[in-house]
Protein: LysR family transcriptional regulator
Amino acid sequence: MVAGLVNLNMDVLRTFVIGTDLGSFAKAADRLGRSPSAVSLHLRKLEEQIGQPLVRKQGRGLVLTEAGETLMGYARRILDLNDEARLALGGLAKLEGWVRVGVPQDFAETWLPSLLARFQRAHPKVRIEARVDRGAAMADAVGADALDLALTWGAMGKPDGQVVGERRLAWIAASDHRIVDGEPLPLVAFDSPCAFQRRATEALDAAGRPWRHAFSTSSLLGVWAAVRAGLGVTARTVDAIPSDLCDLHSDALLPDLGSLTLVLHRSPTRTPIADTFVDLLLDAVEAESGMEGS
Structure:
């Protein structure tokens, strides 16, 4: 190694990026499947290598320092290049053809665009057709060979789906929303069928808690808009909570929602292109959920 140069650890950089994106390194520990002390050690190691503090306290949370903001830009580029290099050197860099993929709205609005861009750069002769739809419709499309693969929340009644992740669920509401004991809980959810809606109503029924449909939509943006307007509460994954909404986990009037599986559906007509995309997709799911070898 050249004197005076320090190689930044890729795992430590990934922890730094995930912790910042989640707004909490405690959440990053849960996501990465590591202990909070291990994540804190990663952050301290990174600060020692940089020679400056990367985060500072602000209220109850942490924000990036000027050095942290600068490093964040480089960290994202380093991780993207690392992931892209792994993909391009995977032995199938000259793939040609197309792949048809389906994902839930949650992912289409977060990491899917960058994932598609990395795949396209590594395999410029592959055409990608991406579909964002309801889970049941995408699972049926895979069965009909209209999609090569799809991710859905829950198995959608398809026994051949592969569980690739699991996310903890939370009740989410506007910060000023109040739960009134004895009154039906107003629910905001996707139109049926919806795995989140089903989990919410099953949990409420099991707890003997009355509920009512307050708002139904086919759009995730519509769900968040209705919750922000105070029309009711919704059930989504813990790591999907927008910063301006709150987790009602401490409210004793609401039952625990447990977790929901993320299931991969694959067409029986397997192709090398689809297999290569699945590898990248599973890497992204693992990085997001912290599930080792799921």
